[in-house]
Amino acid sequence: MALTAIVVAMPFAANEISPRGSDSRPLAAAISPAEDKLQESRAISLESQIIAPATSEATKAWMDNETALADKQRATANSDDQALLRNAIAGYRRALSFYQGKGDTANAGIVSANLLAAFLKLKGQDAANLSADEVRSLAQASLGATDRQTQPLVWSRLQIEIGTLLLATGARGRDIGTVEKAVSAFRSGLENAQHDGRSPREWAEAENLLANALQFLGQSQNSEPQMRAALQALNNAWVLYQYAGLDQYQFFFEARIAALQQQLAQPADASRTVAIAPADTNTR
Do 235 and 282 meet the contact criterion of CB atoms below 8 Å apart? Predict the structure, then answer.
């Protein structure tokens, strides 16, 4: 089989939710990226309150998450500014540490989901520094706080995001087990996709990510069944891209499908190595 670089494409951005904390006031939703100056002022105001001596640890954790939300939105409005993303990630981690220390699994799960969404925006060395262990820990916490029965679309989107990060970290470290977990997350997130209300493009992108992960496993393990499963997922993705009106990707999909078919037509070579694309988790 010929070698093929595996491109890790990112799906949709996550919806972010503020934890309840101990503050009795209604929590503000994430601010629109268009209101960058307002977000900056809000972040500065919250930061000044966090360091105030009279502020309780619970309120500081709430403010850490709120400040991180503002920084994350500002980063999005400024072409995924990496410095702002690092600030957001640091704030989420502080909030998460507090909620985990208190055994508050509901809020720990919400902050974990926020942190996973921020990770998806990382680029270059920041992305390369991601730990598969941390992603798995956050995945467990965020899924544990999400009710699949009452929030099926939120739950399935979260699974795709988890799979995306597991694929990126697993492929970078040539970690078969982590990529296998990515495949499980993608498949779980794609269950009943035609019924859960997601857009054709979201569904298409998830199928493409599944194909990426299966192709990595097929090449790593000289597995024809994995490669055939990758080809099926890739065909599914292309059908959905066309249904979404995204015909501009025709050359990409036709070339990749042809390459996979050619690999399947060749004898397996147990001595080959797997070529992996640069591990930029914001590549689309």
Answer: no
The per-residue pLDDT for range 257-284, each reduced to its tens digit, is 999 999 999 865 544 444 433 333 343 3
How far apart CA 53 and CA 79 sit, in angstroms, is 35
The Cα diameter of the chain in Å comes to: 70
User: Same domain, yes or no, for 117 and 65?
Assistant: yes
- Residue 8 belongs to some domain of the structure: no
Residue 276 lies in a domain: no
Q: How many domains does the chain have?
A: 2
DSSP bridge pairs for 6: 276
Query: 92 Cβ partners below 8 Å, 6+ apart?
Result: 64, 65, 68, 111, 114, 115, 118
Kindly state whether residues 141 and 187 are assigned to the same domain. Answer: no
- Secondary structure (3-state) at 6: strand
Same domain (yes/no): 130, 196:
no
Model confidence at 52: pLDDT above 60 = no
Q: Is the alpha carbon torsion for 207, 212, 215, 217 positive or negative? A: negative
My answer on whether 105 and 186 are in the same domain is no
Look at residue 38 in the predicted model and tell me its pLDDT. Answer: 54
Contact 143, 151 (CB under 8 A): no
Q: Is residue 155 part of a domain?
A: no
Q: How far is the C-alpha of 9 from the C-alpha of 252, rounded, in Å?
A: 13
Domain that holds residue 195: 179-267
Which tokens sit at 284? Answer: 């689309």
pTM of the predicted protein model:
0.77
pLDDT value of residue 129: 92
Task: Kindly state whether residues 40 and 140 are assigned to the same domain.
Answer: yes
- On whether residue 82 sits in a domain, the answer given is yes
Q: Tokens in use for 71?
A: 């920084």
pLDDT digits (tens, 9 = 90+) for 211-234: 999 999 999 999 999 999 999 999
